[in-house]
Amino acid sequence: MYLLDLKTNLLVEAEIIVASIEEMPLKKDGWNFNWKVIFKKKNNETFIIRLKSNPKSIQGVLQLRKQGGMLIMELVEIAPHNIGRKHKRYAHVAGCLIAFACKESFLLENNYKGFLTFESKTKLIDWYMEKYRAKIVIGQKMYIEPNDGRHLIDKYLKREKQN
Asked: Is the pTM of this model over 0.85?
């Protein structure tokens, strides 16, 4: 998978791996969540996306949980330097993390195979619907269905380097 470096306009290779507590970013460094505390939640699995050329360069964090046979995207956060239009460094971070979560949902062996569920902040509901084809269940609860998940996997995880 590749992220777009907005300073050079080049694609850079990235990878998503299972995180360790030592890699968790800190709130004092501009992150919204205290990932060291969140990491310790039982029954959750935490992943990071980082540049292959610089394994210490965490670009985003994703936490998934299985409950009642479903895969739930508990939290997703992109690095502070990837937020905003003016100073954003890398594009496609959230897309890669959400597509990865969709890919993980296809590993389920039940009726929820291929479905990814999550709860959105109110202000992000329209963004999830427009950009990631998510649908509303009720209130802020949302899901991405299998066909849309496959689309995201193809778009973000199978992207080939074209420069």
From this structure: yes
